[in-house]
């Protein structure tokens, strides 16, 4: 099973090429969600949220518990016969956070630090949204380990806005190290 992470600009091409079992779109309220032929509400989750770390700006929609729970629920119904595609506007923050949360949810006995390291190995531009991850950490009862895992990879982040962010794949089968259960 694998999760593809990309930008809005690359989403259509990846859907056509990989034919994912499901798509998760994470976009700002003012952005138009793409339509993908053959995908309906059961196979395409549309989540409206801004890429913000705090909820102190009334004009922005901060990631909420409901948003993150909808991502976890959607992924838990993924049959894994084909990849899952997750995209946001840039393919850097919200989509990387969602992929991290999904991988932690589907691998409850794996260490979040291992998953974060895999994300970093596969993408130097991934910078998971900390608010989303903190909410996911609480919902998955990971006792802060998901947030700590992000801090460990923070120094290696490289983003050059003049370059297109390349899609990356996260194999969602992570080694079982006895985890927290």
Question: Any descriptors?
Answer:
6 helices; single chain; globular; 181 residues; Protein-Tyrosine Phosphatase, Chain A; alpha/beta
Structure report:
The protein is of the alpha/beta class. The chain has a single domain, classed as Protein-Tyrosine Phosphatase, Chain A (Alpha-Beta Complex). The protein has helices spanning 8-18, 65-76, 94-106, 112-122, 130-139, 145-153; strands at residues 2-7, 22-27, 44-48, 84-88, 168-171. The chain has a 5-stranded mixed β-sheet with strand order 3-2-4-1-5, with helices on both faces. The chain starts with a strand and ends in a 10-residue tail after the last strand.
Write a concise synopsis of the structure shown.
The chain is an alpha/beta fold and 181 residues long. Helices cover 36% and strands 14% of the residues.
What is the count of distinct domains? Answer: 1
Give the CATH level 1 class. Alpha Beta
- The CATH superfamily bears the name Protein tyrosine phosphatase superfamily
> What gap, in angstroms, lies between the N and C termini?
22 Å
- What would the CATH topology be? Protein-Tyrosine Phosphatase, Chain A
Helix percent band = 25-40%
Strand order of the main beta sheet, please?
3-2-4-1-5
Mean pLDDT: 90
CATH architectural type:
Alpha-Beta Complex
The strand count comes to 5
Largest sheet: 5 strands, mixed
């Amino acid at each position: 099973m694998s999760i593809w992470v990309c930008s809005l600009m690359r989403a259509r091409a990846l859907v056509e090429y990989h034919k994912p079992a499901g798509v998760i779109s994470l976009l700002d309220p003012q952005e138009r969600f793409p339509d993908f032929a053959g995908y309906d509400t059961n196979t395409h989750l549309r989540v409206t949220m801004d890429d913000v770390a705090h909820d102190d700006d009334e004009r922005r929609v901060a990631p909420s518990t409901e948003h993150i729970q909808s991502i976890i629920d959607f992924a838990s119904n993924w049959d894994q016969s084909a990849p899952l595609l997750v995209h946001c506007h840039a393919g850097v923050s919200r989509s990387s956070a969602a992929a991290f949360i999904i991988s932690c949810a589907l691998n409850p006995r794996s260490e979040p630090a291992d998953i974060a390291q895999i994300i970093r190995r596969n993408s130097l531009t991934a910078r998971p949204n900390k608010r989303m991850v903190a909410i996911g950490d609480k919902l998955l009862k990971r006792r802060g380990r998901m947030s700590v895992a992000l801090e460990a990879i923070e120094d290696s982040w490289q983003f050059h806005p003049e370059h297109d962010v390349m899609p990356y794949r996260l194999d969602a089968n992570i080694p079982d190290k006895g985890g927290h259960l």
